[in-house]
C-alpha cells in the first residue's frame, strides 16, 4: 500500500511497538528495582541514595569564585557609646546595684569592707614606695606606738614581706608564744602579790616576779624571737644557732616556773601549799602554774619543729661560723678597731726598727 493511505495527522508513535506502556514498564523495571533495593528508611533521614552517585555533576561554563571580593571598603572604626564607660559610670552602676538591695545593712558592710581593703592596699603601696625611695631601707613599724609617743618603733616586722609563705605559720606561732609569755608573766606578778599577801614568806617570789616581768619581756623578744624571725627571713644559720641556744634555756626556765620550787615563781608546789591557807589565792596560783606548763609543752614542740626545718635546709655549724665571720668583718666598729690595731702595730714595728738601726 502506498504512503498516501496513511493519516498525516496521526501520532507517529502509534505504530511503534516499543511505545507500549507495558513494554516501557518492563524495560524500566530494572532501574526501579535497583532504586527500591537501595532504599533504607532508617538511614540518612529516610532519603534514598541517588542512582547517579559517584558521577560528578556537569560543570557550568560560567563559574563564580567561592570568596566574593567586596566592591566597597568596610566603614571606618568608631568607638560606640557603649564602650565609653569611665570610672564614674562604673561607680554609678555600683551605687545603683547597692541601692537595689533589699537590706541596706548588707551593702553598707560591703562598702566598708571594700574601703578597708583599699586602705590596706594603699598603705602597702606607700610602704613599698617609701622603701624604694630610701634605697631599700624599711621604716621601723614595731612596736606600733602612737605618733605623740616620745619613743618610736625599734624594729621592722612584716610576715607577708619578709618571711616565705611556707614558714609564715611557724614564725607567727613563735610571735604568739612570745605574747602569751608576756601575759603569763603579768599574771605571775599578780599571783605573786596574792601569795605575798596570804603568806609573808612570799616576799622573794613577789620581788622576782617584778624582775621577770620587766627583764624577760624585752629580752625574750630580742634574744629568741628576733633571731628566729631573721633566720627565716634570710636563711641565716647563725641566727638559727642563737635561737636554739637561748630558747633551750627558756624551756628550762618554763619548767622551773611551772613547778614553783625554791620560791622562784608561783607554781604547782607553792599553789598546792597556798590552797590550804587561802582557796582563792591558791586556785589563782594553780591556774598560773597550768599556764606555765602549757608554755613549756608548746616551747619544746616548737623547738623540735624548727630544728627539723633547719636540718631540711642543709644548714651546718660551719655555715654559721662563716656567716658570723662575715658579719663581724662587715661591722664598721670592728673594722675600725682592726685597722687602728694594725696601724698601731705597724707604727710600733717601725719605731723599734729605727731604734735598732740607731744603735
TrEMBL record:
Major subcellular location class: membrane
Source superkingdom: Eukaryota
Entry's transmembrane regions: 175-197, 203-225, 237-262, 282-304
Topology in membrane: Multi-pass membrane protein
Protein keywords: Coiled coil, Membrane, Transmembrane, Transmembrane helix, Transport
Family statement: Belongs to the SCAMP family.
Name of the protein described by the UniProt record: Secretory carrier-associated membrane protein
Annotated source species: Biomphalaria glabrata (Bloodfluke planorb)
Amino acid at each position: 500500500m502506498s504512503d498516501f493511505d496513511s493519516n498525516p495527522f496521526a501520532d507517529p508513535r502509534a505504530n511503534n511497538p516499543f511505545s507500549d506502556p507495558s513494554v516501557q514498564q518492563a524495560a524500566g523495571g530494572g532501574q526501579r528495582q535497583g532504586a527500591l533495593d537501595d532504599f533504607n528508611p532508617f538511614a540518612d533521614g529516610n532519603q534514598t541514595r541517588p542512582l547517579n552517585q559517584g558521577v560528578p555533576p556537569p560543570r557550568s561554563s560560567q563559574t563564580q569564585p567561592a570568596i566574593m571580593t567586596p566592591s566597597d571598603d568596610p566603614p571606618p572604626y568608631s568607638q560606640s557609646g557603649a564602650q565609653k564607660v569611665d570610672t564614674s559610670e562604673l561607680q554609678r552602676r555600683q551605687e545603683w546595684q547597692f541601692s537595689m538591695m533589699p537590706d541596706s545593712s548588707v551593702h553598707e558592710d560591703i562598702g566598708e569592707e571594700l574601703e578597708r581593703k583599699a586602705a590596706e592596699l594603699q598603705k602597702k603601696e606607700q610602704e613599698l614606695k617609701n622603701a624604694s625611695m630610701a634605697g631599700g631601707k624599711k621604716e621601723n613599724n614595731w612596736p606600733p606606738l602612737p605618733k605623740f609617743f616620745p619613743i618610736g618603733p625599734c624594729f621592722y616586722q612584716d610576715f607577708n614581706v619578709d618571711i616565705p609563705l611556707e614558714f609564715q605559720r611557724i614564725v607567727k606561732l613563735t610571735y604568739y608564744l612570745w605574747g602569751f609569755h608576756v601575759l603569763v608573766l603579768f599574771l605571775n606578778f599578780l599571783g605573786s602579790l596574792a601569795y605575798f599577801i596570804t603568806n609573808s614568806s612570799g616576799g622573794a617570789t613577789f620581788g622576782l616576779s617584778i624582775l621577770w616581768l620587766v627583764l624577760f619581756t624585752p629580752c625574750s623578744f630580742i634574744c629568741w624571737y628576733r633571731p628566729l624571725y631573721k633566720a627565716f627571713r634570710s636563711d641565716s644559720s647563725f641566727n638559727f644557732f642563737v635561737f636554739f641556744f637561748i630558747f633551750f634555756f627558756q624551756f628550762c626556765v618554763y619548767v622551773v616556773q611551772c613547778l614553783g620550787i625554791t620560791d622562784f615563781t608561783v607554781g604547782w608546789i607553792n599553789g598546792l601549799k597556798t590552797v590550804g591557807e587561802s582557796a582563792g589565792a591558791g586556785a589563782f596560783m594553780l591556774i598560773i602554774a597550768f599556764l606555765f606548763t602549757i608554755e613549756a609543752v608548746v616551747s619544746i614542740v616548737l623547738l623540735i619543729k624548727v630544728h627539723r626545718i633547719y636540718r631540711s635546709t642543709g644548714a651546718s655549724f660551719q655555715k654559721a661560723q662563716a656567716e658570723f665571720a662575715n658579719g663581724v668583718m662587715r661591722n664598721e666598729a670592728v673594722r675600725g678597731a682592726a685597722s687602728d690595731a694594725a696601724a698601731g702595730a705597724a707604727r710600733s714595728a717601725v719605731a723599734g726598727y729605727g731604734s735598732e738601726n740607731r744603735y
